[in-house]
Write a structure and sequence with these properties.
single chain, 1 helix
Length: 107
């Protein structure tokens, strides 16, 4: 699978003061998992790095969720890194196609 940084707009720095909601869509015909990490994508090794939060999605499921403050907030004005990966198992490294949209609060 591939780990990507969540960003606001076209920023590549991935610094967000808060991620408050996410809309997820599992575009596969099988169960998939969204692993959420509180570190930069380049430092994640799927299958070895422990996710801060993992969300299970049934086949073709669409889900809108409120992100817990402990996951979505950096706790400072500087923000933090948050990266994500869609996988076929909760702690695995094989990629799964999950569409993710995030609502952020900037301030």
């Amino acid at each position: 699978g591939t780990v990507v940084n969540m960003t606001n707009s076209v920023s590549t720095a991935a610094f967000l003061p808060a991620v408050t909601w996410m809309h997820l869509l599992n575009t596969t015909g099988a169960t998939a998992y969204l692993q959420i990490f509180r570190i930069e994508a380049s430092t994640v090794t799927l299958g070895a790095t422990v996710a801060a939060w993992t969300i299970r999605l049934a086949a073709n499921e669409s889900l809108t969720i409120q992100v817990p403050w402990s996951i979505g907030s950096g706790g400072s004005a500087l923000g933090f890194y948050i990266s994500i990966a869609g996988t076929t198992t909760a702690t695995g490294s094989t990629g799964a196609a999950i569409s993710v949209s995030a609502l952020t609060t900037l301030g």
